[in-house]
Structure formats: structure tokens, C-alpha cells
Give the backbone structure.
Amino acid sequence: MVLDHQKIEGGAITIEYSQNITSVEGLRSLRAIKGKDSAGYSLFVGHNAALASLKGLRNLAGDLPGALDVQNNSKLVSLHGLEGITAVGGAYTNKYGGYSLFVQSNPLITDLEGLRGIKGELPGSLMIGYNDALRSLRGLEGITGINGKDVRGDSLTIDRNARLPSLKGLE
């Protein structure tokens, strides 16, 4: 993997299991991710106890060749900063496998507006679950199809988002 402060070539970005990272401002000059890891992720942000913002990724633009996964970030308030991502080109292949886009267990996010740049079909499945404050699926309107399945055979899973009143945003 090569990081030239503008793009990641041949690998992924993983930000995980941090107790102290509150923002990703140090990545503000990042323009592209042109690779994925061996599991199929291009961008994984998970299990970060203090991470409140993804706005440091605001200059990231274009297609991701692998999956996008944002999960278990207890202080994350939105997905803003990801608006420049225009497509997700792969799916990860672990024991749960098959997801192209996975947003789960981020208890403070209220919408998915940060994903509004993603257009077209997903090659893998889509999971939005356990986001306790989620009130809207707005931001997913550009997704026109889902071509993959998870290990249960589901292409789309919207699960246990306690405050989600409707599926508007999927039309």
C-alpha cells in the first residue's frame, strides 16, 4: 500500500478499535482509495469509542473498488464526509460476507445523507441496522439496484433501527 497524501494505491483504509481518535482530520488531503484489503474492504471505520466525525474524509472522491463499512462507533453523529464516494465496487467476504455497504450500531446517526454520492448498483448486499437514532434513509436514493446477497441470502437488510418511521430514501 502506498499513501501519497492524495490517494491510497493497492490497499484499504481501516480505522478501528481506537479509544482516543475523535476525528479523521489527518486524512483531509486524501482524494481517492484505489484498492481494497484481502477481505474486500476499501474503507472500514469501526469500533471507535470516541470518533465523532468523518468530515476529515470530505475530499475523498470517486469509486471505491471494495466495500464500505461503518459500524460500532458510539459517538459518531453523521456520515458527512463521505459524500464524494460515487460507487462501491465490491463486497467483503468474511464469515458474514457479501456486503457492499454496511452501516450498523452507530447509535447517534440520524440519517444517511453522507452516502448521497453513491450512485448505481451495489455488487453486494446492503445492511442498515441497529442505528438507534436513525430517522431517515435519505442518502440512499442514488442506489438503483443490489446484485449480491449476504450469507442468509438477503440482498437488503433494514433491521432494528428503533426510530426509523419509513423506508423513504429507498425509492
Summary: The mean pLDDT is 93. The first strand starts at residue 2 and ends at 3. Residues 26 and 115 are 21 Å apart (CA to CA).
